[in-house]
Amino acid sequence: MTDKIRIKLPDGSLQTFAGREAWTLRHLVNAGPQGLTTIDHPAPRWSHYVYKLRRAGLSISTDYEAHKGDFPGSHGRYRLETAIEIVSMEGAS
Question: Among 24, 41, 51, 76, which residue carries the largest CB count within 10 Å?
């Protein structure tokens, strides 16, 4: 079953997301103010799904954090900044 999530925005409007966008939004909601990183939650194309949610009008911040190890560099920590109300959710696993 494909993930699907329907949300209510602060202005009262409703939006529905399906597939990976719904999956990404659900993970951002579950992460809360701490946010999440691609290091802790590896998945394909996080940045693309965040981009698509932003284009739909959601505010998602990105803070960059350094990491060490065999492949040192930086990774993004994404946080959902828009206050939303979940109206319905399907397929959440």
Answer: 24
